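Researcher: Can you fold this with adenine in place?
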Amino acid sequence: MTTTRIDVITIFPDYFAPLQLSLVGKAMTEGIIDIRVHDLRDHTTDRHRSVDDTPYGGGPGMLMSPEPWGMALDAVRSAQQAPNQRPLLIIPTPSGEPLTQELAHRWAETDWLVFACGRYEGIDARVAQYYGDAKVCPDWAGVREVSLGNYVLAGGEVAALVIIEAVSRLLPGVVSNADSITDDSFALGAMADLVEGPSFTRPRTWRGLEVPEVLVSGNHERIAAWRAEQAQIRTQSRHLR
Ligand code: ADE
């Protein structure tokens, strides 16, 4: 088994305490993933441990300076564990490409991910430019700027948590029932671009509401056809297609 290594650089390491819980926590204990959280301020050189500055050209807010990021990323890169590993740098930002299940699958097959969590108005654009340039940084696997959606969070930490959870549950051995991954909303294959339809458990009647008859029929073909139809209906009603 190869361990997936994940490094996170942030000015709020405490944000990542929930990774100890549940599926991801168990995957760490079992050695499926190795998550290391680093404080960006450990890579500052001034008395105030400052990480931000005003933007050139003016405008509201502060921007993260490139220098602490360069130092922190180089330090993470030099702590390579396995030979031939090249980290992929993921920068959560509302101006990135949308996160999809397909990206999560792709990153689940990548053995080293590094997350750069920006705060304020983001990170000086030269950081993504520098580490994404294969000629300048051949020992990196590139840079992906990703967005969780068309809204603005206070920083990249929550987005990194989301991406780590979406990727981790796809790693072999993290979710015990492999079918629950192939049946997921947006799963690759038959469910691509579809959300799952409704699901039910006992009791069969709850507050006057019945479980659909087909699900208790025992007829697996009818059940599969009903689920496929419900997935279509739900997907259309959510304007996802
Ligand atoms: N950082 C701030 N807002 C974000 C978003 N919507 N997605 C990813 N990272 C972010």
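Model: Folded with adenine in place. The radius of gyration is 21 Å.
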